[in-house]
Amino acid sequence: MLHQIMDIIAQAEKVYQQHFTAETHFERAIFFSWYCGIGDCTFCYMSAEKHAKTARRSTESILAEIILCKALGWKIGFVSGGHDAYTKVEFLELLKQISRVSDEKVWINVGPLSHAELLKYQPYIKGVVASIETINPTLHKKVCPSKPIGPFEQMLSDADSLGIDKAMTLIVGIGESLDDFLLLEAFIRKHGIMKIHIYSLNPHDGTAFGNALPPSNVYHAEWIARTRIAFPTIDIQAGIWLDRSNTVSLLLRAGANSISKFPALRHFGGKEARQVEEQVTRAGRVFQGTLTTMPKTVTIPETINNRAGVAHKIESYIDAMRRTQTRQTLTRT
Ligand code: SF4
Question: How much is the pTM?
Answer without folding.
Answer: 0.95
